[in-house]
Amino acid sequence: MTAISVLGTGSWGTALANVLLDNGHDVLMWGRNHTVAESLTQDKQNPEYLPDIILSDRMTATTSIESAVNHADILILAVPTKGIREICQQIDQVTTGPKTIIHVSKGLEPKTFKRISEIIEEVMAADHLQGVGVLSGPSHAEEVARRQPTTVAIASHDKEVRQLGQDLFMCDYFRVYTNDDLIGVEIGGALKNIIALAAGLSDGLGYGDNAKAALMTRGLAEITRLGVKMGADPMTYLGMAGLGDLIVTCTSVHSRNWRCGEMLGKGLSLQQALDSMGMVVEGVRTTQAAYEMSRAYEVEMPITHALYDVLFNGGPVEQNVRVLMNRQKTNE
Ligand SMILES: NC(=O)C1=CN([C@@H]2O[C@H](COP(=O)(O)OP(=O)(O)OC[C@H]3O[C@@H](n4cnc5c(N)ncnc54)[C@H](OP(=O)(O)O)[C@@H]3O)[C@@H](O)[C@H]2O)C=CC1
Ligand SMILES: O=C(CO)COP(=O)(O)O
To answer: Is residue 138 in contact with ligand 2, taking CB distance under 6 Å?
Structure first.
């Protein structure tokens, strides 16, 4: 039995804590929301983020970050990208020893273009950090919490972290592959949300399967182009963090990014769509980050640019579709 703390009591943190509890580990969750922490500890449920799912009877959560951080040497970081910097600062302030941090967030920081592991390494003092990894792949929290078969990848530059992540999480309904391409996995997990937003928009507009297949295929080409420019292995994008996560987010009603896109396609404003969601839609900020990165690194990303125009300039969707379809003739 290993002591592990899961920081973030949203849908994904809760589902992953449940996997670790099923594997017999000593898990403490931390969240800033008192009501959620109380429901998790007393009722073994998270009605706000995972309604109608009964979790492990050993589920326990605290709102004291100091208790959670010092409960374990292994921390699972499960908060949205925009909260990562702040949480790392808090961990760094209260920790009494070095930590191995496995994050599960799918985003990039606008302006700095940083991946999550880069933010963690930048904020944490070197002697407070034992190792960093990311767990990513096609995995809706709603299905994992119901113990439905799921496969993911654990990526790190450090072989021990990859092995640790695989050993801690793997069970008969949660299969974990190791991958040494940290850059590729983090970028794939972040950028697929852009394509999921676009796929939802396409469905909301009433376009068919051809349009969605085109978005997914050419979207994967965009993801691969930027990933490779940043140092990723192109083969990573045929795996969990590429094709796998694209399929699960572009084709599922569970995906918040797809649902947000669908609402935009049906005519809601971005603010209306986000307000009705109540959960994080990472793809919106990531579209901004990827748009800026594609310009800075001179990587062609036409779907990202079209979505950026729709989200941030109020550009008409149909006009952007026309622009995409009438780009200069080219080779596949
Ligand atoms: N849900 C899923 O199926 C999957 C999600 N992910 C990724 O996991 C990450 C977390 O997403 P998910 O759990 O789904 O998100 P949710 O929207 O379900 O929950 C977000 C959680 O993070 C908390 N939070 C938000 N901002 C901060 C902050 N600044 N500091 C501390 N806590 C904060 C919220 O607290 P509060 O309740 O107080 O607002 C809430 O507990 C995202 O990057 C997502 O892409 C990855 C794979 C699957
Ligand atoms: O990343 C996910 C599944 O792999 C969850 O996607 P959403 O954030 O769009 O719900």
So the answer is: yes
| Residue positions forming the annotated binding site for NADPH | 11-12, 32, 49, 106, 141, 256, 280, 282
Nearest residue by C-alpha to atom 28 in ligand 1: 83
pLDDT for 144 equals 98
Cα 181 to ligand 2 centroid, rounded to whole Å: 20
What is the model's pTM?
0.97
Q: Is the CB of 106 under 6 A from ligand 1?
A: yes
Note the ligand closest to the C-alpha atom of 142. 1
What value does the CA radius of gyration of the chain take, rounded to a whole number of Å?
Answer: 19
Its ipTM equals: 0.99
Give the residue, out of 103, 106, 135, 192, with the most ligand 2 atoms within 8 A of its beta carbon, to mutate for a pocket test. 106
Task: Give the containing element (helix H, strand E) for 155.
Answer: strand 150-155
Ligand nearest to the CA of 139: 2
Give me ligand 2 centre to Cα 195, in Å: 12
Residue 111 has pLDDT above 90, yes or no: no
User: Could you list the active site residues?
Assistant: 192
Question: What atom in ligand 1 is closest to the CA of residue 142?
Answer: 3
Tokens of 245: 């996560």
pLDDT in tens, 152-173: 999 999 999 999 999 999 999 9
pLDDT in tens, 192-228: 999 999 999 999 999 999 999 999 999 999 999 999 9
- At 67, phi and psi to the nearest 5? -65, -45
Residues 20-53: tens digit of each pLDDT: 999 999 999 999 999 999 999 999 999 999 999 9
Please give the domain boundaries of the chain with CATH numbers for all domains: 3-180 (3.40.50.720), 191-325 (1.10.1040.10)
Q: How far apart are CA 328 and CA 332, in angstroms?
A: 12
Kindly state the tokens that stand for 87. Answer: 């949480």
Q: Is 177 exposed, middle or buried (0-12, 13-18, 19+ CB in 10 A)?
A: middle
Residue 150 burial (CB count, 10 A): 20
Grade residue 245 by pLDDT with cuts at 50, 70 and 90: very high
